[in-house]
Write a structure and sequence with these properties.
By secondary structure, this protein is α/β, with parallel strands linked by helices. It is 11% helix and 27% strand. The chain has a five-stranded mixed beta sheet. It has a three-stranded mixed beta sheet with strand order 3-2-6, with no helix packed on it. The chain is elongated.
Length: 123
Amino acid sequence: MSEKKTPAILFQWFTDDWEQQTLGNILITLPFKPYMKSPEQNGKYEIIQQGNEPIAGHANGSPCLNYTDLVIFGDHTLSLFKPESPFFVATDGVRILKGKDNMNRNYLGSMQNVVGYPNVVNS
């Protein structure tokens, strides 16, 4: 017999059972190497790094343009950054994440807080 997975906190509009998923089933990791840049004088686009100071500088070139559904994850600092404009990344210590099935990127920040990593940095 299957155990019913009812949430401890039930929202009025949510009546279904919880569905447990692994991160690999709900996230896509996008390539970051095409967007790696070092700061330049008079750069137009932000360069994002991990940590509490997410903007490392600015650069010119061909940035990541599809930023609205993305979150930048720092794999050493466990920080998240939600870019608000086209961007580059500073190092290979960041991962560009996107939720599958049109997942709202704000959910990723909420999920990080739930599992105990409070380093969500809003731009």
